[in-house]
Design a protein that fits this description.
By secondary structure, the chain is of the alpha/beta class. It folds into three domains: 4-91, Rossmann fold, CATH 3.40.50; 96-303, UDP-N-acetylmuramoyl-L-alanine:D-glutamate ligase (3-Layer(aba) Sandwich), CATH 3.40.1190.10; 312-443, Protein-Tyrosine Phosphatase, Chain A (Alpha-Beta Complex), CATH 3.90.190. The protein is built from 17 helices and 20 strands. It has helices at residues 12-23, 38-46, 58-61, 78-85, 93-98, 114-127, 142-148, 160-164, 191-199, 218-226, 274-289, 294-303, 331-339, 362-368, 380-386, 399-409, 431-443, and strands at 4-8, 27-32, 50-53, 66-69, 90-91, 104-109, 132-136, 153-157, 173-176, 210-214, 232-237, 246-249, 252-255, 262-265, 312-317, 320-324, 345-349, 369-375, 392-396, 415-418. The protein has a nine-stranded mixed sheet. A hairpin with a 2-residue loop joins strand 15 (312-317) and strand 16 (320-324). The N and C termini lie far apart (62 Å). Pathway: Cell wall biogenesis; peptidoglycan biosynthesis. ATP binds at residues 110-116. One of its GO terms (molecular function) is ligase activity.
Length: 445
């Protein structure tokens, strides 16, 4: 009899997993406690897949042999607890799909910078004419792409939630961009649990695999001192912490991976800011491990366009630059954004706070921020933190109002920066929706 695969969540990862599962001969059922989007319903129907929405029917879920849980569903959800009590394996899309592909994967995780690093790495490998897919937390579902079988390698952006659901998944090259407190609401507010989730990326790696990591990141280096791992370590550093792997010397990125010296002047990178130097180093390390020509790496690093909603320059109006950094959903991401500002800044901030500590931004806010525009349902914490530091703090309840207020507060030569440091779900569907509304509001000024 066919094994039963139950998919919890009818979004991108769920539908992709259902398609791959059917192709591999499973009896598949998709169950979503919320609503399934119309386009996904059409795909499920076209593929003759059974589904339900608005509920989890226990009789149809608890008879599974294996369950794929979408990353957005927490372990605390009652149906997940019931499955675990019955001893039914609950895995992630990454785990399910990786068993059906012969390809090597590059797995990229971290609290910040992972999308840029993932897209930049994919760009480098694609320019080198490798057949390489881009998936994980980004773009088309990994399982769906595996079902279509077009690629020989994959670059995967992996969240801690996806790593929570792996058992045997083993990336050939793992990258950890950095670790800072994020999503602690999903880890019982225990930072150590979150750190451990990130390091699950190395748990199945062997001596023939690699871990590329930021040697300037205290959380990463401390963990590596305490725990022994099998993969070969490839560190990168912009502050002279290493002379192996990749490092910065006299405004050049230098690498000695595979004893094959590589030099790239920082000024030739297409992306600006210190954090992007690190993202470029991580991508370069992967490209060198994949034996890509130095010339191709240099060209790719200098012509990469960047990521939407990540320090994206929108427009200059009356000599004020408007910047969309909606993807900054935690204080660490906003730290990088403020750090890269070179002119007086009107900062639009706020949303759903996941346990933020605003102290780490204090010095940068003092130096760079002339006015704060709060954009959230509850802005009290932001007002308490910065009310005495910044002369002007204004509360707004919509993106149009926030952008208009920022325009009034900005003078020639200033910048208006949307970098919320919070999740978007109080006023928006997603950080993408928030970023698009910002861009629309700016274009309508």
């Amino acid at each position: 009899m066919a094994k039963r695969l139950v998919v919890l969540g009818g979004g991108e990862s769920g539908v992709g997993t259902a398609i791959l599962g059917k192709k591999k001969g499973y009896d598949v059922f998709v169950s979503d406690f919320g609503k399934i989007k119309e386009n996904y319903k059409e795909v499920l129907s076209l593929n003759k897949l059974e589904w339900e929405e608005g509920k989890h029917t226990e009789a149809l879920v608890l008879n599974a042999d294996v369950v794929m849980k979408s990353p957005g569903i927490p372990d605390k959800a009652p149906i997940v607890k019931q499955l675990r009590e019955k001893g039914i394996p609950v895995i992630s899309e990454i785990e399910f799909a990786s068993q059906y592909m012969a390809a090597d994967t590059i797995g990229i995780t971290g609290s910040n910078g992972k999308t840029t690093t993932t897209m930049l790495t994919h760009h480098l490998l694609e320019q080198a004419r490798l057949k390489v897919g881009l998936a994980g937390n980004i773009g088309k579902s990994f399982a769906w792409q595996v079902a279509e079988g077009k690629f020989e390698n994959y670059v995967l952006e992996l969240s801690s939630f996806q790593l929570d659901g792996i058992v045997e998944y083993r990336p050939h090259i793992a990258v950890i961009t950095n670790i800072s407190p994020d999503h602690l609401d999903r880890y019982n507010y225990d930072y150590e649990l979150y750190i451990a989730a990130k390091f699950r990326i190395v748990m199945n790696q062997t001596e023939n695999d690699y871990l590329v990591y930021d040697a300037d990141d205290e959380t990463i280096t401390k963990w590596l001192e305490k725990n022994s791992i099998r993969p070969q370590k490839i560190p990168f550093s912009i502050s002279g912490n290493v002379t192996e792997g990749i490092y910065v010397e006299e405004e050049n990125i230098k690498s000695n991976i595979n004893n094959d010296g590589f030099i790239m002047p920082i000024r030739e990178l297409s992306l600006e800011g210190k954090h992007n130097v690190k993202n470029a180093m991580a991508a370069t390390a992967v490209a060198q491990l994949m034996r890509i020509r130095k010339q191709t790496i240099r060209e790719s690093l200098s012509d990469f366009d960047g990521v939407e909603h990540r320090l994206e320059k929108v427009l200059k109006i009356q000599n004020v630059q408007y910047i969309n950094d909606s993807k900054a959903t935690n204080t660490n991401a906003t730290f990088f954004a403020l750090d890269s500002m070179t002119v007086p800044t009107v900062w639009i901030v706020g949303g759903v706070d996941k346990g933020n500590d605003y102290d780490e931004l204090m010095q940068l806010v003092r130096e760079k921020v002339k006015a704060i525009v709060c954009l959230g349902v509850d802005n009290q914490k932001i007002i308490n933190a910065f009310g005495n530091v910044v002369d002007v703090v204004v509360e707004t309840g919509s993106m149009v109002e926030a952008v208009r207020t920022a325009q009034q507060l900005a003078e020639k030569g200033d910048a208006v920066l949307l970098s919320p440091a919070c999740a978007s779900f109080d006023l928006f569907e997603s950080y993408e929706d928030r970023g698009k509304q910002f861009k629309n509001a700016v274009q309508n000024l």
